[in-house]
Amino acid sequence: MEFRYLGNSGLKISEITYGNWLTHGSQVENDVATQCVRAALDEGISTFDTADVYANTAAETVLGEALKGERRESLEIFTKVYWPTGPKGKNDTGLSRKHIMEAIDGSLERLQTDYVDLYQAHRWDHETPLEETMQAFADVVRQGKALYIGVSEWTADQLRQGVELSKELGFQLISSQPQYSMLWRVIEDEVVPASRELGVSQIVWSPIAQGVLTGKYKPGAEPPAGSRATDTKGGSDMIERWMKDDVLTAVQGLEPIAADCGITMAQLAIAWVLQNDNVAAALVGASRPEQVADNVKAAGVKLDDDVMKRIDEALGSVVIRDPKLTAENTPKGRVV
């Protein structure tokens, strides 16, 4: 495993970070989820990312149980706040002071820890003044409940506003968690340049495009049984964007490139996002422990310019790049 600094801070995290978004507490049984976390630890992963909304708080509980007994100082535990949780009442969502202060206590209890290393705004809240949100985050940091603050799917302009306020309030906003993969490159034109300027790193989710970049989905063929595309608990909805024959055909063109590099297509996809020097970590999940061992082999892989060019040529016009799509990932009003 290799480690990278997160933003303009002294915090180092594993460049392969374990995330339990679509698995823990929903798609796999708790004992298998625990086995996946143990496999991640065995492979040298020290950084774990979750959110209170995942499986309506159950994912945090599963992760807390799985990490129980580990030396806390050797781990970096991240979680997030914004989406509706609990009974989904009027204040069980968003980035109001009330919701943030209550949500952090709930997350810490479920994770069985006194603090998280990174507490992230899971989206931008159009209905709460940014000053209120950032003051609440400042207080969470001063209370020792979070060491650093991050965000997810914020635009370049939103990042600039957030970083400016964080400096005024005396804490560090050091990370952005966007979707990023060979197929989804919307952060490259605006978010990444702004982040470099601001001292913010990316922790990217879906580097394998919900599994499409593994090559297991073939054009014109039914999805493999038990795959994410057949999951009715949310997985099939997330992958639907990529389940088009032109995309799947282009992805098949990556197979010889991966073979020439001596790695799998999944490892190629993860290694690709890690070539971006503004990316601190690639988030990977797993429904089986052996998937963790496979994904970790992407750590430290260097892709030369010729390989990067061949990837661009193989994918061609199916790549999505429009920077305006970052803003579209955030609801215009709170979701209840």
Strand order, biggest sheet? 3-4-5-6-7-8-9-10
- Percent in helix: 25-40%
Catalogue the unreliable spans.
none
Q: Biggest sheet, open or closed, and with what strands and sense?
A: 8 strands, parallel, barrel
Radius of gyration: 19 Å
- Number of separate domains: 1
CATH superfamily: NADP-dependent oxidoreductase domain
Structural class estimated from helices and strands: alpha/beta
Identify the overall geometry. globular
Number of beta-strand segments: 10
Order of helices and strands: EEEHEHEHEHEHEHEHHHHEHHH
Into which percentage range does the β-strand content fall?
Answer: 5-15%
| CATH class categorisation | Alpha Beta
- State the distance separating the first and last CA atoms: 40 Å
Characterize the structure shown.
The protein has 336 residues and is an alpha/beta fold. It has a single domain (3-328), classed as NADP-dependent oxidoreductase domain (TIM Barrel, Alpha-Beta Barrel), CATH 3.20.20. The protein contains 13 helices and ten strands. The chain has helices at residues 30-42, 58-67, 97-111, 130-142, 156-169, 191-198, 235-239, 245-252, 255-261, 265-274, 289-296, 305-315, 325-328; strands spanning 3-5, 12-14, 16-19, 47-49, 76-81, 116-121, 146-151, 173-176, 201-204, 279-284. Strands 3-4-5-6-7-8-9-10 form an eight-stranded parallel barrel, surrounded by six helices. It has a two-stranded antiparallel ribbon with strand order 1-2. Strand 8 (173-176), helix 6 (191-198) and strand 9 (201-204) form a beta-alpha-beta unit. Helix 4 crosses helix 5. The protein is globular, with a radius of gyration of 19 Å. The mean pLDDT is 91. InterPro entries: K_chnl_volt-dep_bsu_KCNAB-rel, NAD(P)_OxRdtase_dom_sf, NADP_OxRdtase_dom. Keywords: NADP, Oxidoreductase.
